[in-house]
Design goal:
single chain; about 150 residues; alpha+beta; OB fold (Dihydrolipoamide Acetyltransferase, E2P); 5-stranded mixed barrel
Length: about 150
């Protein structure tokens, strides 16, 4: 038994764990009050026009203006969907769906190998949003439906 010596906590701190947690909590709350986490504070944040919805779209794959950009032409308007993936039942109904008159610029296309599907009918899912007066679709699913875009 040691008499006259203070008991020290882990890492040599003379403060209790409860005291250290309270100090960290207080400092974190003070920092958030001074520097709130909101979109306008973040430099370079993209501001979209309107809502962002998860939708299913049927249309034809086309080449965009730049080398690695893709579009969906003759696309349906897009219907809201709860899932970002596609079921076989959805593919069966999408294959019979008529094409539309919309155009979507695709975002997040790297992992979908889109180039072999140019001029093919496809069903895509993704986050639909308006940016710089263009409809964009950030892909979550890309499914081939037919080797051509005949109605």
């Amino acid at each position: 038994m040691m008499i006259g010596r203070k008991r020290r906590c882990l890492f040599g701190s003379p403060f209790s764990l409860r005291t250290r947690i309270a100090v960290v909590f207080f400092l974190s709350a003070a920092a958030l009050a001074i520097f709130p986490l909101s979109a306008p504070v973040i430099a370079g944040a993209v501001q979209v026009d309107g809502d962002v919805d998860l939708v299913t779209v049927v249309g034809c794959v086309g080449k965009g203006e730049s080398a690695d950009s893709w579009i969906i032409e003759r696309a349906t308007e897009g219907r809201r969907t709860p899932e970002g993936y596609t079921s076989q039942d959805e593919l069966d109904s999408a294959a019979a769906e008529p094409l539309g008159d919309r155009e979507f610029h695709l975002v997040g296309t790297n992992e979908f190998n889109i180039e072999p599907h140019v001029s093919h009918k496809v069903q895509v899912k993704g986050l639909r949003y308006m940016l710089e007066n263009e409809w964009r679709l950030n892909l979550t699913s890309f499914q081939h439906l037919a080797p051509n875009c005949d109605d």
